[in-house]
Design brief:
Number of domains: 1
Structural class: alpha+beta
Strand content: 35-45%
Shape: globular
CATH superfamily: Regulatory factor, effector binding domain
Mean pLDDT: 96
Strand order of the largest sheet: 1-6-8-7-3-4-2-5
Number of helices: 2
Low-confidence stretches: none
């Protein structure tokens, strides 16, 4: 597992929806928010970068969004979240999404072994869809204190 410590600024301006992961059910909450977000983006033909970003926050909060290529004059109900990280760790997970919990475990071990402390937000940035789940790519990013 190759985890990078990055000390350069990451800026994202996302448009989507926030929610609470009831009973820590992140997948169910995330998919509901993602489907709602894409429904608004597609029905209003909002130009976007096409990349899903799942943001995890304190207290089991989530924000699912996409970067828009142009900021619309009407929000169409989309919420905006701006993320700025100046120090973070990043791991590119390649493979099925079912492997993400193990990747997080390894990242937490890396933090512990290197005396680092994470801070929210944590991000999952999903690459292009591939029917072959062994080729799926997900960047996992954890902010650092």
């Amino acid at each position: 597992m190759s985890i990078e410590i990055i000390n350069s600024e990451l800026n994202l301006s996302l448009h989507g929806f926030a929610g609470q992961a009831v009973n820590r059910n992140y997948p169910e909450t995330g998919f509901k928010l993602m489907n709602k977000m894409w429904s608004v983006v597609k029905s209003n033909k909002l130009p976007n970068k096409g990349i899903n970003v799942w943001v995890y926050g304190a207290g089991d909060t989530m924000f699912i969004g996409v970067e828009l290529s142009e900021i619309p004059t009407d929000s169409f109900g989309l919420e905006q979240m701006d993320i700025i990280l100046t120090k973070y760790i990043r791991y590119k997970h390649i493979g099925a999404y079912s492997g993400l919990p193990q990747a997080y475990k390894q990242m937490r071990n890396f933090l512990s072994e290197n005396n680092l402390k994470s801070r929210f937000p944590w991000l999952e940035i999903y690459g292009d869809w591939n029917a072959d789940d062994s080729k799926l790519e997900t960047d996992i990013i954890m902010g650092l204190e």
